[in-house]
Write a structure and sequence with these properties.
Blueprint (H helix, E strand, L loop, with lengths): L16 H19 L4 E8 L46 E8 L5 E8 L8 H16 L3 E6 L8 H8 L14 E10 L2 E5 L15 H11 L4
Parallel strand pairs: 3-4
Antiparallel strand pairs: 1-2, 2-3, 4-5, 5-6
Helix pairs in contact: 1-4, 2-3
Length: 224
């Protein structure tokens, strides 16, 4: 699969990598929704690390209160005391596609996570990404991790398999670009994780053309 170098000119620093990652996630979700069996759907989800914003919407009702209604009085807000202990936190980026089973109300069955440059800029961020990723197989959710970040340090796959206690599945630290699938399964009463194509909980396997979706994302952002 041919890849552009997103980390040196002319793409960097002139182009925003976050825009590409979000667009690629959308292209993968579109492709999945064309092939997923009835009763399943895919959605992209993006969030940039510690850049957290909380918006509170307020509405003004200009209609007069009806007779007999109760006027609400302003309430006094409460602020918690300052925390006696403050811990440093590494909050990973989120560029992923989530696959849900709609029967019984949107049950998560599979995820595709795209590693971002911020996820690999320091060891704490690599581990934070791995903890989040490893939580999917631990909940019985199939996972694919795609890492096209080659100008940073660390290997998220190695951190993931260490957290899952499968150290034998580690790659060489300098293995470079990779895409790895993790499929949780129970055999003979024991939990295991297969490295295999992404599978739904029904045992259905899908072929995902990452090259086609990558090319589509590049064309949408005029990166060719």
């Amino acid at each position: 699969m041919p890849l552009l170098d997103h980390f040196r000119p002319p793409l960097a620093p002139r182009r925003h990598r976050e825009s590409f990652h979000a667009n690629w996630a959308g292209a993968i979700a579109d492709a999945l929704n064309e092939d997923l069996p009835k009763g399943y759907f895919a959605e992209e989800k993006t969030h940039q690390g510690a850049r957290i914003e909380i918006d509170m919407a307020t509405f003004r009702d200009d209609e007069p209160a009806s007779e007999g209604s109760i006027a609400l009085q302003p309430t006094r807000t409460w602020a918690p005391p300052e925390a006696p202990i403050v811990l440093p936190a590494a909050i990973p980026d989120t560029f992923e596609v989530l696959v849900f089973r709609s029967e019984g109300g949107a049950v998560l069955v599979a995820a595709i996570a795209l590693v971002s440059p911020a996820d690999k800029d320091r060891p704490a961020h690599v581990r934070a990404f791995a903890i989040k990723a490893a939580s999917y197989p631990a909940q019985g959710v199939s996972l694919i991790v795609i890492d096209i970040v080659k100008k940073r340090h660390g290997n998220p796959h190695n951190e993931i398999v260490k957290l899952l206690q499968y150290d034998d599945a580690c790659m060489p630290d300098d293995s470079g670009l990779n895409a790895v699938a993790y499929r949780p399964i129970v055999r003979d009463g024991a939990g295991q994780v297969d490295v295999w194509p992404m599978a739904l909980d029904t045992g259905t396997c899908l072929r995902i053309d990452f090259e086609e979706t990558y090319t589509a994302a590049c064309e949408r952002r005029r990166l060719n």
